[in-house]
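Whether sequence alone determines local backbone shape is best considered at the level of individual chains. We regard such an encoding as a compact summary of how the chain folds. The sequence in question and its structure tokens are set out directly beneath this paragraph.
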Amino acid sequence: MDQTNNPTLSRALAAMCTDAAGADSALQEKFAIALRHFHAMLDELQLTDVELYRIAAWLGQVARDDEVIMLCDMMGLTMRSLDLARTGSEATAQNVTGPFPKDGIAEGPNPCQLAADDEPGQRLELRGRVRDAVSGRVLPGAEVIVWQPNQLGRYENEDDSQSDDNLRGKLRCDTEGSFRVLTIRLGGYIIGREDTAVGVLMKRLGRNRQRAPHIHYRVLHPGYQTLTSQVYFAGEPANSVDCIFSTIADHIVEVTPHPERDGHQLITLDVAMEPVV
């Protein structure tokens, strides 16, 4: 970024005084980086003041539509920030939280009956074990929270036909660090609406709003960083076109016939948690 012919940028950078009352030097350093990139973007796009204020007004509409996070997601910023947050250890990678977590649901038994007997859909068992990413030892008592949409891709809090907290569960790992969740194979879905600021943008960019089928989970244990992630199914056509780019290889699991339950499917998810330093 050659900014040698940008006197305004030079003045904006110089306007930050390190010895001013209340000044935050770390914030100043990061803001200077942001300023340089913003100015470089204006230069490359040759934005006029009218165009700049049009973008500002559009961002205001994104906020009013409550789609700021969706904007970050569809631009790939959320997944990139999660990539940058990885420590390089053996810990399971974080993934997008999504809009519908409920940590306050009641804790139930392990195995967890996530789907009622009358819930439509292909029966599926999710089983796994939680361990320490450094030592490899299992973590008995780790808390696991799981949530997902139904076979039509609808979450309970956006679908009046479902009961409260349907397809949501909370359980604790047993003495072997193991957990089991009995549920159904869920459907993918379309995020957002096509008539909002972000929806219109995605349409004009030729972008789809498809999410690949996935199960959300969160794992908590004292002394470890909380893990929020998702599990995807190998062979799903939507994996390659997921609109927020969260179908990373580490989170795609094989689906096999269940060895003990006729007509059921099985996926295995082993979770490694990062100790708090």
The chain is about 25% helix and 20% strand. The radius of gyration is 23 Å. The longest strand covers residues 123-132.
